[in-house]
Amino acid sequence: MRRNGRALLFAGLFYAPLVSADWQVNLIEGATEISRSVYNLHMVIFYICVAIAVIVFGVMFWSIFWHRKSRGAKAAHFHESTWVEIAWTIVPVIILVSMAVPASTTLIQMYDKNSAELDIQITGYQWKWRYQYLNQDIDFFSSLSTPPEQISNEQIKGENYLLEVDKPLVIPAGKKIRFLLTSNDVIHSWWVPALAVKKDAIPGFVNESWTRVDQPGIYRGQCAELCGRDHGFMPIVVEVKSPEDYQMWVAEQASLKVVEQQSAQKEWSQAELMIRGEAVYKASCAACHQLEGQGIPGVFPALVGSPLMSGDSAEHIDAVLHGRSGTAMQAFAEQLNTVDLAAVITYERSAWGNQGGAVTVQQIAELLKE
Amino acid sequence: MGSIEQSVQSTDHHGPAKGITRWLYTTNHKDIGTLYLLFSLTMFFIGGCMALTIRAELFQPGLQLIMPEFFNQMTTMHGLIMVFGAVMPAFVGLANWMIPMMVGAPDMALPRMNNWSFWILPFAFSMMLSTLLMEGGAPNFGWTFYAPLSTTYAPPSVTFFIFAVHMMGISSIMGAINVIATILNMRVPGMKLMDMPLFVWTWLITAFLLIAVMPVLAGVVTMMLMDIHFGTSFFDAAGGGDPVLFQHVFWFFGHPEVYIMILPAFGVVSEIIPTFARKRLFGYASMVYATASIAILSFIVWAHHMFTVGLPLVGELFFMYTTMLIAVPTGVKVFNWVATMFRGSMTFETPMLFSLAFVVLFTIGGFSGLMLAIAPADFQYHDTYFVVAHFHYVLVPGSVFSIMAAAYFWLPKWTGHMYNEAMGKLHFWLSFIGVNVTFFPMHFLGLAGMPRRIPDYALQFADFNMVATFGAFLFGFSQLIFVYNVISCIRSGKKATAQVWEGSHGLEWTLSSPPPYHSFTEPPAFTSPHRANG
């Protein structure tokens, strides 16, 4: 009940369709022209099905009630009627054609990817999304921001439990945006119900889709294709801003870049790297190697006591930077900045009793330049 | 000397061997039918326990009982076991028991192969279940095992899974060959194809589907094996392969497969409804043609499972139209069943209750199927709980209810004893309520946006998940009533007559209950009251 009340309160503040009241029983109308026509299509077909159900089950229950042996019903002897059988082949065909026409219209509309004003490449990773704004210097990863303590029931769950990310996809309202979808590892599927966009992100393929959202707001969705152990923890948040706010956001991204470059120049002490490294480890590594670095036997190797963590740092760095082909270990060189890379490698080499020692930001920067 | 005499004797009276060897070496269609049914029931409970593990975890948001890896293993194994271990073998068991008796034959056409096709299964499933104990765990990539998740990122146990699938496929093909040979060669003189009972017809068509698509499944798992162990790149884009190729090949098998699991159910219901309506089946010929049309259409609609992979517009339109078309023959079947009831003289014994529930709930599953066929709307439904609701409505109150109906309908014939009607009705009503409480809310969950195969979910999905879990436990535990009823029917139970039900006709009801060990040693007289086509 508490949740109910709070959801209603929030529904008034933001238009966040996935966070409406409990007991939601129907599709949402959504926030785009396409999503509304999909909703209408859905309702039309639903009502046709209900009408057919009423007629067919009506006759059936009529028979069950009136043609019971216990009421003295005597069985009739008919068991064929050509014209009836032809009629109930033809009539459904007519109904189907009447459904197929609006369905085809909507589908053709959805496939019209012309004249987009902004192209964004979306890449699925186990288990995060990467958003690259084509022809702009914006490129970031977006992953679940719900604290693990909420998932393991040690903390009260927040309003947007499992539907919140560290960095949402930001797009301008009223503009046609084309999405190019692909994947880095397995098949994922990018789905935001309010936009009626669901398209698979497939390694080796580039799929297209598009949207034009009328109103600013926050729209939430999730990965919709089984992609491994954290499939349920791969949300999508789309923040639609007014064109002016969007421009401000774009400018902000450029200044963030400068800050990041400056921090890479700074001298980082091992203690600072450890603190930062722990945070990075939790966000990027703990899903597979577990919080205590114990791994999952037979699936993800343990980091505790691993020779890789205590031996020569070059091999460890190479694994983190370039991944291990044929395994779930990703190349983190493209996902994390130099400071984060140095921090997390330092953390892994020194945490849980590992004796590998620190690596420096400069060391990583040198390797990345090569 | 003694043993020779004994063997001469046992050849004389054609009785079953004694002890365990009766079951190991048996070539008798009834014994093999029983083995299949018992195997299926065992798998139904194993797969059911996995389903309850899943539902228990989903009772509340957050991770309580199991971790995501194990959750994925459970969903995968639940699906594989229910499809290949419970539903398919149950129908093969029914076919083994009933087809020779319905066509007036002494046994199946290829009895020794029949023994083989059953005994492969326990080995296949032991192999599959053993993966649960392996390092890295059981297969965790869903029953559809999409590449590259199942090739590049799977646990090592995937190889055992591939060989288990191969063995199941071999078993199914051998079973199908046997069914076809029996039906085409061993019908009693005078029984034309269009005189056959519908259960025989639906199985004949199903057997052809099996022979057509099981090699495709074998092909796709072999390609996986090659990719994993022999350096090929069928499904690996980095090596020039194509992950979507996997889905095309898989669903070219997978879509006909779903009809393999429902066509025999149509047959069962078409036997039961006329019996308890005391009226001939309406539109026998159109039932046969509708079944054949569904089977043919099933080969050209596979990509409706793949509307979101990025098919070209023309492809989406083609698969949308052909999929919608399936509603026509399926509708004909439903209308015919209703017309059979219309102006009948109906009674409501347990098999009839399960059959009536089948008609209503399967039709609801058909409606959601029609909605899923509409490609633009499917973008919203695809891979959500709406799909889970849809296929559970066609598989549980569809296939499983029809198997239950068949079991109650033919138990008196098989055992010679009547089952307990009151307990049967209790079983029905608890199952009926349980199934609907479990699966109906899943429609709402899917429409509200809950993806399938997630171990934990956002808060607004909490209430319906709780309801579904209650329903699942109710449905699961009420199946124990069925087991108790079957056991007490075999052991005690009132004596059953040969005809058993007032409205039954057809050759199987001319045999005593239980029937003699070799059903028809002499071809029976096949006269008009036994004809299915009226």
Supply database-style keywords.
heterodimer, A: 370 residues, alpha+beta, Helix Hairpins, Immunoglobulin-like, Cytochrome Bc1 Complex, Chain D, domain 2, five-stranded mixed sheet, disordered N terminus, B: 17 helices, iron (chain B), transmembrane (chain B), oxidoreductase (chain B), EC 7.1.1.9 (chain B), membrane (chain B)
What does this structure look like?
The complex is a heterodimer of chains A (370) and B (534). In chain A, the strands form 2 sheets. Chain A has a 5-stranded mixed sheet. Chain A has a 5-stranded mixed sheet with strand order 4-10-9-6-7. The N terminus of chain A is likely disordered. In chain A, a hairpin with a 4-residue loop joins strand 6 and strand 7. Chain A has 3 domains: 97 residues, Helix Hairpins (Orthogonal Bundle); 143 residues, Cupredoxins -  blue copper proteins (Immunoglobulin-like), CATH 2.60.40.420; 104 residues, Cytochrome c-like domain (Cytochrome Bc1 Complex, Chain D, domain 2). Chain A is built from 11 helices and 10 strands. Chain A has 370 residues and is of the alpha+beta class. Chain A is elongated. The N and C termini of chain A lie far apart (58 Å). Chain B is built from 17 helices and no strands. Chain B has one domain: Cytochrome c oxidase-like, subunit I domain (Cytochrome C Oxidase, Chain A). The radius of gyration of chain B is 23 Å and the shape is globular. Chain B is mainly alpha-helical and 534 residues long. In chain B, helix 9 crosses helix 15, helix 10 runs antiparallel to helix 12 and helix 15 runs antiparallel to helix 16. The N terminus of chain B is likely disordered. Chain B: It is found in: Cell membrane; Membrane. Chain B: It is a multi-pass membrane protein. Chain B: GO terms for molecular function: cytochrome-c oxidase activity; heme binding; metal ion binding; oxidoreductase activity.
